[in-house]
Amino acid sequence: MDSKAEGITDKIEMDTVCELLDKTLLQQLHLMEEKMRYELILESNIKHGSIHLAKSRYIMGHTSVSMARLPMEASPEFSASTVCEETEIDNNKQLQVVENKDSNTVNPLHWFGILVPQNLHEAKKVFRRTVDVVVDCVNLQIRLLENIKNMEALRQYKKLLTNDLL
């Protein structure tokens, strides 16, 4: 192949790399926007869940909904009602929240008594959704880091192409 044809091939390859870099950067911006949206949802959920806890504490009394009711190290062993598992989707690691099927799971509402106010049930629902949002944030962070690695590899390749063109 003559040098003119090689130059054209290198130019086409450089254009392709630049286009891929642009697409990757746009994807990075979209992922960052989505992550910020999830973080706002997370903040809102925590605020609403805390308000429901405060209302429950007001209704039941300050000693009924307190740290003293939570299990400590000397408490009997139990399993969480939801667990986080790592899965692989399209060769990408992702976390997923699943219900725990273990026999010794405990309903956390029972730590505060049998008849608890509706606000405590609402707080449980809100915080359970919050766990899902946190997992989504982690998955987005993983995608962001992968995207950064891809952008860096494309930059290195573009740098090599630029050196070859000179």
Model description:
The chain has 166 residues and is mainly alpha-helical. It is 64% helix and 10% strand. It is built from 2 helices and 2 strands; from the N terminus they run αββα. It has helices at residues 3-60, 118-165, and strands at residues 82-89, 92-99. The chain has a two-stranded antiparallel ribbon with strand order 1-2. A hairpin with a 2-residue loop joins strand 1 and strand 2 (92-99). Helix 1 runs antiparallel to helix 2. It is elongated, with a radius of gyration of 26 Å. The mean pLDDT is 86.
Order of helices and strands: HEEH
The low-confidence parts are none
Q: For the largest beta sheet, what order do the strands appear in spatially? A: 1-2
- Total DSSP helices: 2
Per DSSP, what share of the residues sits in E-state strands of 2 or more residues? 5-15%
Distance between the termini: 18 Å
For the secondary structure, the number of strands is: 2
How would you characterize the largest beta sheet? 2 strands, antiparallel
Give the CA-based shape. elongated
Overall mean pLDDT stands at 86
Helix content: 55-70%
Structural class: mainly alpha
Nearest-angstrom radius of gyration?
26 Å
